[in-house]
């Protein structure tokens, strides 16, 4: 018999982190590589007990990318099964405002990519629609 905690939704938050390219001013999106899963995704992570979702999203951005960020529009949440538990990830569009990446065991690489390249690099199809939502949110078509 399962406990209520085993059936409860795992709450997580993250950001679709973006910046203007220092080279040409075009929009770029930050993707993180997690060696544990060998995947490319948007920075995100589980919320701490009682943590506000936006605060958690910004914390995860700093932890995974080393970047501080200015949050913008909340994007559509993503729902999926993580193992056998339902998971909900709330995302925000967030503009990188500073900082620098230092590799860790959790995230060993980041890439700043143009939106179409980022869509192709993302491992999970569910993460690709977030790129379209980001472009809408920041007024890029």
Structure description:
There is one protein chain. The chain is α+β, with helices and mostly antiparallel strands and about 140 residues long. The chain has one domain: Nucleoside Triphosphate Pyrophosphohydrolase. The chain is about 25% helix and about 40% strand. It contains 4 helices and 8 strands. It has helices spanning about 5, 55-65, 115-120, 125-140, and strands at about 10-20, 25-35, 40, 45, 65-75, 80, 85-100, 110-115. Strands 1, 2, 3, 4, 5, 6, 7 and 8 form an 8-stranded mixed beta sheet that branches. Strand 6 and strand 7 (about 85-100) form a beta hairpin. The chain is globular, with a radius of gyration of 15 Å. It starts with a helix and ends with a helix.
Reported by name, the CATH topology is Nucleoside Triphosphate Pyrophosphohydrolase
Question: Which regions contain 5 or more consecutive residues with pLDDT less than 50?
Answer: none
> In CATH terms, what is the architecture?
Alpha-Beta Complex
Name of the CATH first level = Alpha Beta
Question: What string, H for helix and E for strand, traces the elements in order?
Answer: HEEEEHEEEEHH
Give me the secondary-structure category: alpha+beta
Rg, rounded, reads 15 Å
Content of β-strand: 35-45%
CATH superfamily: Nucleoside Triphosphate Pyrophosphohydrolase
Roughly what is the average pLDDT, rounded to an integer? Answer: 94
What count of helical segments does DSSP give?
4
The largest sheet, given as strand count, sense and whether it forms a barrel, is: 8 strands, mixed
Q: How many domain modules? A: 1
Helical residue percent band: 25-40%
Count of β-strands = 8
């Amino acid at each position: 018999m399962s406990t209520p905690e085993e059936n409860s939704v795992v709450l997580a938050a993250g950001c679709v982190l973006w910046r203007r390219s220092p080279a040409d001013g075009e929009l770029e999106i930050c993707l993180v590589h997690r060696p544990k899963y060998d995947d490319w995704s948007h920075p995100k992570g589980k919320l701490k007990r009682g943590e506000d979702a936006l605060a958690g999203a910004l914390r995860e951005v700093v932890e995974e990318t080393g970047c501080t960020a200015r949050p913008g529009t909340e994007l559509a949440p993503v729902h999926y099964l993580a193992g056998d538990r339902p998971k909900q990830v709330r995302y925000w569009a967030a503009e990188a405002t500073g900082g620098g990446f230092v590799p860790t065991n959790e995230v060993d690489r980041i890439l700043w990519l143009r939106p179409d390249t980022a869509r192709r690099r993302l491992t999970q199809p569910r993460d690709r629609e977030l790129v379209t939502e980001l472009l809408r949110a920041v007024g890029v078509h």
